Amino acid sequence: MTKLKELLKNELTEEELKIAPNSFEMIGNKEKSVAIVEIPEDLEDKKELIAKSIMHNHKNVKTVLKKVSERKGEFRNREYEIIFGDEDTEVLHKEYGYVLRADPQIVYFSEKEGVERQRIAKDVKENETVMLMFAGIGSFAVAIAKSQPLVDKIISIEINPQAVEYIRKNAAINRVAHKIIAIEGDVRQESIKFYGKCDRVVMPLPLEAAKYLEDAIKCLKERGKIHFYTLIDRNNFSSAEEAIKTICEKMDKKYKILNEHKVTEYSPKKWKVCIDFEIL
Fold this sequence. Notes:
Blueprint: E1 2-3, H1 5-8, H2 14-19, E2 23-28, E3 33-37, H3 47-57, E4 61-67, E5 80-85, E6 91-95, E7 98-102, H4 114-123, E8 129-132, H5 139-147, E9 153-158, H6 161-173, E10 180-184, H7 187-190, E11 198-203, H8 213-219, E12 220-233, H9 238-250, E13 255-267, E14 270-279
Parallel strand pairs: 3-4, 8-9, 8-11, 9-10, 11-12
Antiparallel strand pairs: 1-2, 2-3, 4-5, 6-7, 12-14, 13-14
Helix pairs in contact: 4-5
């Protein structure tokens, strides 16, 4: 995330600066990036000024997108408006020694979660079979395969056909296609094929993951880890812990919470968090 108010301090009035966004997201590389920004309704008439200020200070930004909606629909996409710049918004994003091709107008991707991808990737051990639910463009899959080259395989299930194509592209350009199995389809239906075959399950879809906890546990061998992402109010992890407890009791499974932490701020009152737990 890049500080925005600092860029706008000579462009907006003091009152306008108070409601201006604090930062914006930048996806891409030194040659071509896309900036994504939230524009408050009261600054709608300043959106082009804001976009031009971003592009003036970051020469690699070729397009500025304004968030128009929350994530919605079967593919969890967000609507954007091009405020200024090129219509072609596909970029090659670089992080931690690998690259990810993505178009934020077509598929979900967040550079803010790069640190989290690395955290999970560094935890994966040799010879593990990893199940990646809601795989998106394969960002977690590539991170894992590059960090742990001795991983057995990474099963990546995604319902959006365009995102599945990106999984395959990203696996190929990072030379890890032999480790990543890209599967197009519904997680609940496709995961059945892998019941009892996985050492670890990653569930990076906070709005829906709780509905798939039982499927995730069934994918594990007798023991295994689950990285469960969900939303909480401020610092209250109890609702997320209760969801895990309810499913484990229903399935007569013993479990142990290993770690819980905030990932990103989802809204002023909600956080995307991850609870790592182990089925014993």
